[in-house]
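Data availability (excerpt). The following record was deposited with the supplementary files.
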Amino acid sequence: MSWLDAQRTHRPVGPVEDDPVTRALLASALLMVALFVVLLPPWWLETRLVEGVNVWTKPQKFHLSLFVHFMTLGVLAQTVPRKIRTGPTLSIFVYLSVAALLMEMVYIVLQAARGRRSHFNFDTPFEGLMYALMGLGALLLVLVAIVLGVQIWRKGTSKTGLRMGAAAGLILGALLTIVLAGYMSAVNNGRWIGEHPLAGATVPIFGWSREVGDLRPAHFVAMHMMQTLPLLGWLADVNRIGRKGALAIVGGGAVVQIILALYLFFQALSGQPVWPV
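Predicted structure:
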């Protein structure tokens, strides 16, 4: 059966099924890749800075992060039966998350083009309102992972390791992300604990401060539990470790990452950078 025939009949093409929820998730992931590529020239040529960083760096980092997020959701959604995946509960949260994605990226790109901050910006009533709406959008982007994780836990059809890893990663990672991101958006200085100088040293690629406490490393570890724990579970299945071994590996990975995220969080609260100068 050709790909076009599969599109018409809504049947599986390889390991990925053709259904509205899968299409919405994977199309969103591919949109992030397309936007990343489109914005490469202005990112390279731009000379304007916001808080000492190229104005296009934030949109590009979000494009990569959201690509990983939606691709993860699209792949892991294949581990529940089609009836569950396309049912009203998961469908509603997926469509809300896609709407939130579009709203956030339009605003973040717009603010970058204007040379203004999108996050932690209360300079005008409009920017304050949009920051609040982005907070709601971010919550929707994470809640869909919890919903999918619960469905995988209850109805998942994959082997033990992947099923446990996907459920634990999506649920625990999303909950910890909500807690840490919620705190980060509530403190006065946003991501920094202390006054980060505009030309201060940062961690390459990630941009985390090496001068003052930075809450983003803890947020990063929590958020990417959604990828690492499913990967650990899948590796346990591939290596035929068995149910108990798979549970031990997934559980151990979860404990290590939660402890690491909390350690980085409290380290930042003490004003200590993750990688001191």
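Summary of structural features: The longest strand covers residues 49-50.
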